[in-house]
């Protein structure tokens, strides 16, 4: 019997487990000539030994019947066993009493050694990054742990872990198909195997990728990094890298010389980031990318603007002039928060490329989902379904990447169909410190990048003081993103040469680190010395390159002194060509009527109540809803859901793309919308009737989001940035839940125009209303939005002809609480028909979705009709205003409670009720008209929210201004409270009855002084 037959008959489960790693597909020899390869059946069980025995017998008959790796293995083992090259197995393994088994022992030892080498290779691939030389300072392990894994051969004595000896170092071993360290060679000595593994995995690059559950992707990465000689650069590439390092470092040096006492959050210590980003852009451009959208925090932003985006240097330098006057209204922002948009030729590829850096506040990672949303929109408008034309790059700080939850939320969106951008290149500037916090106190994970593992993104750690390693890693990262359309992380392990900012003293808290930093030779000098030693450049050429860039900076500095006015419009990251006049002003200050022809309403209603696809089976309950829609259409009425349908549908007809996103928006949290129909018999077969309205309509996107507010609202905000000709809406599951997206609301939506002259038409739909559902499902916190509204409560406005539109243009956002479906219909259409874009906050109803009185007639929506900012009393009280004793102002759902109570008390002639549909900007003109109409009436503001919440604190001073403080406006509603609503149904009803009684008690305010 041959040695391999004996081998095949005694191989057990443990040997097979080592022989066939979990990510390796073994070709089934039975199908070798007749079909595609299959994986080894039950390769983790002991029964696999018989499978290998059969494969060996087949190989004896025909070596071509098995995979070439097995053919090579069987040949090698057979030759060595037959020639007696193997030493006898130790007595402890094979008893001396069985000398006849010597050949069997030799074969067994051969197999064990080969399996050990395969395990060794795998250990380096999995854990080699733990011992890589990543920290340029050499004082801290990048993974926060100096432990050396026991299965890595860092010393000779560790050979024993694999039952290998020093004598085995020069023995030749067959390389498995899961490594490329051999290049064109199939065998290497153990010594050379270890050397090549250390060279690949334990030097200045640390690779984390073996957790990826895709064999092809793992093999791709192995080939990129393991293949011998793969990281080679031409003389021209090295000279380009040196020049880019010169630009990066000398820019920072120039700013430090000219403005030594100014904060700029410079890039010193990670100057290699500039050539790194340029390499990603160059490689991506080479592969067809035409538009790159970047997001980053403030550190290094000015350098990126100057040397990557190519912002004019004089525009950057003039930002440092404290006497510069602002040409634009608004507060503006500090220079290291600003964005930029630039179209230019990429010199490396001679192709056009558009670069935009999205403006970002100091809330660090807040920009991440915004960039992704803008990228998604750009891809959508270009029809770039695979992200081959538009891509995003996100730059992060190490502490923020590990600590900010929005980073995970953004990663979580990366593979969702309606949110994917087909891969993002993440670059982490790993300063190994967060402000003053040691990383050992700042994160629980070994690396700051571990969050990326959740989406199987490969992570490439690299020592930032090795520029060539950085450039190679960045090139591979760009190629990975283009090949697999997946995220990838480049972790630039570097240091921060100065403190948190240029005025900060880091020695207070990190004395040892900064002693080393002060001794650290800058990366530019290191690399220049290296190239000079190699003969790639001369010292004179290097000095000339420095002088050349310094001269460019000095000339730009001279030009910057001529700047008298700072025009922030030059810093727009999302220009809308053709939407505004050349000077950036709206083309008009008028808004056309928002009504539409009745036949359009009827057509939309008909489609909304049908199923456009043949053979599509819907739920019986949904059939009743569709029949109800059809019945309303015949009766020329709409409820809330149908009004929304008609607003969206009419805009689609006009070429306006509509996108609605949020948690459960397809059906609607309250099961009222049903924009996506699901076949009851066929899994994942759906129908969106809204996309079947017109032959040449704009597309409608409605998509359920992940259970995220911060990330998803940021995403939709970014989406709305890309084009003014789209209605982009985000709906909270309940209005209360917007509080976890407060950062986006505060930093981007409320203040975006004031800080960055950035118009944005995002719409927030926030279900709101006190209905006894408890403090977490009642209030969308209208008081917060009103507090941030910028209209002046004490300024008496001039009621010009364009007052309504001018007021909207001057505000930072629009806040409405619609009480009728028609109002909702009109305000959505007005959002697009306005000659500018403002964020729109809509407090949407819950119970009114099905309230029998909350319906509107087609007459309120047809051509010639418009949004009513105020809906005045139109009942008996309006016919005899002089007899009215009380005029109640309110907004939203409480109107229906008030009307019902007024009717039950028979006070229709004594009490008038006026609704504010638009709360901010405040409708001064219409409120004045109403108050003057009812001269003898008491004025009351009634709200269902508690007194310290809701609208009262906002409307009260504005009423006083418009009435010149001649008449008081009394408050009726719930008393002040800490929580926005009660969780007890009975308590809710009692408080409701109490304030309704007060609202209609005509003696309630007698004797009270104002």
Automatic annotation (TrEMBL):
<dbReference type="GO" id="GO:0046872">
    <property type="term" value="F:metal ion binding"/>
</dbReference>
<keyword id="KW-0479">Metal-binding</keyword>
<comment type="function">
    <text>2-oxoglutarate dehydrogenase (E1-like) component of the 2-oxoglutarate dehydrogenase multienzyme complex (OGDHC) which mediates the decarboxylation of alpha-ketoglutarate in the tricarboxylic acid cycle. The OGDHC complex catalyzes the overall conversion of 2-oxoglutarate to succinyl-CoA and CO(2) while reducing NAD(+) to NADH. The OGDHC complex is mainly active in the mitochondrion. Involved in the inhibition of cell proliferation and in apoptosis.</text>
</comment>
<dbReference type="GO" id="GO:0004591">
    <property type="term" value="F:oxoglutarate dehydrogenase (succinyl-transferring) activity"/>
</dbReference>
<dbReference type="InterPro" id="IPR031717">
    <property type="entry name" value="ODO-1/KGD_C"/>
</dbReference>
<dbReference type="GO" id="GO:0030976">
    <property type="term" value="F:thiamine pyrophosphate binding"/>
</dbReference>
<dbReference type="InterPro" id="IPR042179">
    <property type="entry name" value="KGD_C_sf"/>
</dbReference>
<dbReference type="Pfam" id="PF16870">
    <property type="entry name" value="OxoGdeHyase_C"/>
</dbReference>
<keyword id="KW-0496">Mitochondrion</keyword>
<protein>
    <recommendedName>
        <fullName>2-oxoglutarate dehydrogenase-like, mitochondrial</fullName>
        <ecNumber>1.2.4.2</ecNumber>
    </recommendedName>
</protein>
<keyword id="KW-0786">Thiamine pyrophosphate</keyword>
<comment type="similarity">
    <text>Belongs to the alpha-ketoglutarate dehydrogenase family.</text>
</comment>
<keyword id="KW-0324">Glycolysis</keyword>
<dbReference type="GO" id="GO:0005759">
    <property type="term" value="C:mitochondrial matrix"/>
</dbReference>
<keyword id="KW-0809">Transit peptide</keyword>
<dbReference type="GO" id="GO:0006096">
    <property type="term" value="P:glycolytic process"/>
</dbReference>
<dbReference type="InterPro" id="IPR032106">
    <property type="entry name" value="2-oxogl_dehyd_N"/>
</dbReference>
<dbReference type="Pfam" id="PF00676">
    <property type="entry name" value="E1_dh"/>
</dbReference>
<dbReference type="InterPro" id="IPR001017">
    <property type="entry name" value="DH_E1"/>
</dbReference>
<dbReference type="Pfam" id="PF02779">
    <property type="entry name" value="Transket_pyr"/>
</dbReference>
<dbReference type="GO" id="GO:0006099">
    <property type="term" value="P:tricarboxylic acid cycle"/>
</dbReference>
<dbReference type="InterPro" id="IPR011603">
    <property type="entry name" value="2oxoglutarate_DH_E1"/>
</dbReference>
<keyword id="KW-0106">Calcium</keyword>
<keyword id="KW-0460">Magnesium</keyword>
<dbReference type="GO" id="GO:0045252">
    <property type="term" value="C:oxoglutarate dehydrogenase complex"/>
</dbReference>
<keyword id="KW-0560">Oxidoreductase</keyword>
<comment type="subunit">
    <text>The OGDHC complex comprises multiple copies of three catalytic enzyme components, the 2-oxoglutarate dehydrogenase (OGDH/E1), the dihydrolipoamide dehydrogenase (DLST/E2) and the dihydrolipoamide dehydrogenase (DLD/E3). OGDHL/E1-like isoenzyme may replace OGDH in the OGDHC complex in the brain. The presence of either ODGH/E1 or ODGHL/E1-like isoenzyme in the complex may depend on its tissular distribution.</text>
</comment>
<dbReference type="InterPro" id="IPR005475">
    <property type="entry name" value="Transketolase-like_Pyr-bd"/>
</dbReference>
<dbReference type="InterPro" id="IPR029061">
    <property type="entry name" value="THDP-binding"/>
</dbReference>
<dbReference type="Pfam" id="PF16078">
    <property type="entry name" value="2-oxogl_dehyd_N"/>
</dbReference>
């Amino acid at each position: 019997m041959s040695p391999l037959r004996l081998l095949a008959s005694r191989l057990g489960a443990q040997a097979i487990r080592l022989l066939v790693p979990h990510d390796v597909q073994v070709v089934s020899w039975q199908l070798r000539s007749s079909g595609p390869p299959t994986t080894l059946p039950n390769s983790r069980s002991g029964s696999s030994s018989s499978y290998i025995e059969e494969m060996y017998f087949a190989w004896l008959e025909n070596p071509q019947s098995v995979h070439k790796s097995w053919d090579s293995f069987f040949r090698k083992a057979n030759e060595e066993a037959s020639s007696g090259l193997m030493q006898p197995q130790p007595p402890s393994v094979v008893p001396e009493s069985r000398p006849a088994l010597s050949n069997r022992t030799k074969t067994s030892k051969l197999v064990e050694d080969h399996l050990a080498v395969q395990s060794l290779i795998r250990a380096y691939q999995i854990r080699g990054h733990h011992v890589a030389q990543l920290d340029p300072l050499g004082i801290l392990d990048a993974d926060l742990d100096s432990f050396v894994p026991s299965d890595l051969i860092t010393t000779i004595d560790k050979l024993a872990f694999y039952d290998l000896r020093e004598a085995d170092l020069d023995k030749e071993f067959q390389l498995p198909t899961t490594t490329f360290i051999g290049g064109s060679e199939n065998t290497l000595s153990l010594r050379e195997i270890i050397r090549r593994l250390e060279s690949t995995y334990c030097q200045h690059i640390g690779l984390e990728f073996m957790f990826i559950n895709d064999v092809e992707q793992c093999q791709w990465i192995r080939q990129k990094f393991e293949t011998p000689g793969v990281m080679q650069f031409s003389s021209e590439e090295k000279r380009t890298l040196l020049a880019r390092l010169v630009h990066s470092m000398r820019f920072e040096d120039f700013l430090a010389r000219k403005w030594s006492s100014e904060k700029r959050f410079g890039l010193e210590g990670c100057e290699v980031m500039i050539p790194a980003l340029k390499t990603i852009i160059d490689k991506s451009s080479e592969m067809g990318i035409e538009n790159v959208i970047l997001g980053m925090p403030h550190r290094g932003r000015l350098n990126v603007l100057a040397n990557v985006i190519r912002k004019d240097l004089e525009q950057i330098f003039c930002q440092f002039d404290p006497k510069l006057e602002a040409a634009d209204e608004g507060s503006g922002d500090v220079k290291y928060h600003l964005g930029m948009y630039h179209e230019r030729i990429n010199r490396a590829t001679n192709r056009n490329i558009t670069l935009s850096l999205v403006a970002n506040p100091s809330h660090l990672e807040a920009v991440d989902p915004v960039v992704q949303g803008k990228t998604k929109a750009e891809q959508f408008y270009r029809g770039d379904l695979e992200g081959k034309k538009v891509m995003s790059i996100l730059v992060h700080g190490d502490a923020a990447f590990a600590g900010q939850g929005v980073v995970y939320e953004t990663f979580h969106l990366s593979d969702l169909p309606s949110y994917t951008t087909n891969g993002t290149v993440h670059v982490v500037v790993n300063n190994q410190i967060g402000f003053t916090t040691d990383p050992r106190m700042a994160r629980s994970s070994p690396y700051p990048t571990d969050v990326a593992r959740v989406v199987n993104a490969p992570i490439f750690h690299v020592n930032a003081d090795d520029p060539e390693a950085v450039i190679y890693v960045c090139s591979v990262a760009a190629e990975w993103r283009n090949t697999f359309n997946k995220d990838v992380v480049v972790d630039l392990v570097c240091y921060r040469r100065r403190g948190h900012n240029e005025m900060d003293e880091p020695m207070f808290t990190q004395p040892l680190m900064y002693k080393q930093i002060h001794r650290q030779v800058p990366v530019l000098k290191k690399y220049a010395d290296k190239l000079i030693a190699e003969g790639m450049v001369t010292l004179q050429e290097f000095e000339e390159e420095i002088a050349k860039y310094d001269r460019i900076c000095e000339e730009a500095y001279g030009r910057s002194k001529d700047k008298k006015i700072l025009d922030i419009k030059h810093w727009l990251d999302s220009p809308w060509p053709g939407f505004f006049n050349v000077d950036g002003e709206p083309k008009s200050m008028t808004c056309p009527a928002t009504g539409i022809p009745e036949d359009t309403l009827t057509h939309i209603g008909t489609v909304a109540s049908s199923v456009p696809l043949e053979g599509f089976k819907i739920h019986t309950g949904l059939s009743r809803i569709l029949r109800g829609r059809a019945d309303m259409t015949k009766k020329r009425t709409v409820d809330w859901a149908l009004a929304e349908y008609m607003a969206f549908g009419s805009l689609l007809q006009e070429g306006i793309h509509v996108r609605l996103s949020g948690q459960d928006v397809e059906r609607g949290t309250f099961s009222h919308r049903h924009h996506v129909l699901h076949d009851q018999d066929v899994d994942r077969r759906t129908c969106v009737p809204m996309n079947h309205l017109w032959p040449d309509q704009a597309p409608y996107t409605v998509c359920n989001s992940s259970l995220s507010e911060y990330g998803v609202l940021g995403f939709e905000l970014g989406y709305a940035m890309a084009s003014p000709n789209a209605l982009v809406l985000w709906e909270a599951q309940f209005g209360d839940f917007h509080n976890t997206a407060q950062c986006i609301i505060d930093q981007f939506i409320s203040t975006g125009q004031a800080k960055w002259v950035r118009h944005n038409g995002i719409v927030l739909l926030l279900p709101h209303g006190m209905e006894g559902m408890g403090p977490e499902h009642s209030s969308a916190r209208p008081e917060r939005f009103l507090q941030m509204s910028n209209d002046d409560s004490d300024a008496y406005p001039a009621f010009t002809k364009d007052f309504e539109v001018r007021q909207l243009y001057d505000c930072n956002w629009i806040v409405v609480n619609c009480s009728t479906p028609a109002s909702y219909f009109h305000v959505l259409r007005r959002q697009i028909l306005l000659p500018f874009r403002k964020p729109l906050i809509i407090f949407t109803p819950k119970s009114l979705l099905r309230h029998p009185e909350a319906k509107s007639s087609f007459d309120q929506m047809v051509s010639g009709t418009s949004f009513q900012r105020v809906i005045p009393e139109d009942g008996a009280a309006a016919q005899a205003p002089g007899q009215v004793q009380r005029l109640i102002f309110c907004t939203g759902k409480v109107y229906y409670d008030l009307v019902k109570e007024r009717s039950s008390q028979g006070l229709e002639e004594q009490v008038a009720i006026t609704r504010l549909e638009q709360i901010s900007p405040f409708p001064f003109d219409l409120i004045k008209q109403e108050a003057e109409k009812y001269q003898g009436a008491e004025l009351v503001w009634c709200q269902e929210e508690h007194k310290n919440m809701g609208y009262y604190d906002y409307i009260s001073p504005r009423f006083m201004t418009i009435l010149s403080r001649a008449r008081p406006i009394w408050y009726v509603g719930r008393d002040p409270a800490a929580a926005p609503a009660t969780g007890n149904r009975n308590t809710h009803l009692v408080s409701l009855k109490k304030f309704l009684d007060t609202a209609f008690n005509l003696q309630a305010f007698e004797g009270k002084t104002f």
